[in-house]
Amino acid sequence: MAMAFTTSQPYQNTTWLNASQYYDNSNRRRIESSDIPVFACYAAIAVTGCICNSLTIAVMVRNPALHTLYNFLLLNLAIGDLISSAFSIAKFIIIVCANQSDGLSDVSAILICRFFTTIIYFSIILSVLTLAAISLERYFGIVKPIVHRNMTTKRLKYFLLFTWVITITGPALTSGQMRMEKTRYYCFASSDAKDWPRWKSIVGWIALTCANIIPFIIITVVYLKIIIHMRQLNREPDLATGENSQSARLAQQKTAKTIRLLIIITVLFSVAILPELVYFAMIFSDRTYIDAVLFYKIGIPTVAINAVNPLIYTLSNPTFRSAAQRLIRRPRQRRVAFSSMRVASPPLTTTTTA
After folding, report:
1. pTM greater than 0.70
2. Which residues form a coiled coil (predicted)?
3. For the CA atoms of 35, 41, 43, 49, what is the dihedral angle to 10 degrees?
4. What does the pLDDT look like over 242-261, one tens digit per residue?
């Protein structure tokens, strides 16, 4: 999910850190003790992401009661994050194996760098767009329920298909400019990237705006409108009784709890992804370079948020919690039942006739 990048200069040419101490006589980077905490964090986060997102996907697929528009969007978020977590594990396996062997060939380095670059940016953009779609779905469901009835599952599938196409196509085209610095196993923009024509920088700013800035603006405006609408509902008494009924208050409290959870997760994701957005802005402005190791470390919060996002959302749903408990207990119940059957069944005896 977060392979580090520099801009048009390889890591050795940056001035943030002295890189000479990290190399042996073969000019190939050794795995140092300072790498172990970073590797451990990424490994733990990747495994957690695989477990959490796999559980979310399994529960939603196996329970028709959870097949709603809101949950389909959560399912889309979980699938994207699962792919990202799985490829994070694969990336570290490749790095460790390459470090212990003779390294990577030129062709392998280019293919791996472009492939993982595509996966990284695919996950980030898909998460942002899905979070924006979730906020809009909640807005129409709470503020404009009549419009929400026209949001069918078929239309949602078309939207998800469109989202996957653009989130894969865009990063795939961008990854063509990436190369791997094989002595450190980091990707950076190719040497001619600093000589990009002005129109490419403009296209980059447009892509950054459409894929990240505009969705976050939409999310902010939508949640503000939902909060204002919820406060107005709390002030308006029921027309029949002259006061808010108990059922209406409970429904409003449940909705408010969900909205608070969505806002908290969105804010955390926004704060986590902010350093990466600043990094992209620096690339398009061509003002400075960011050290690969530094960017590699500041990407950990984004990876962590993506790993647990869907599970946090879905744990707020009592139906999901009970379904997850049944799914987790089922293998253990099968083992217990199988063991009891073996104990209860009498041993087989054979009779012989003279």
Report:
1. yes
2. none
3. -160
4. 455 666 667 677 777 777 77
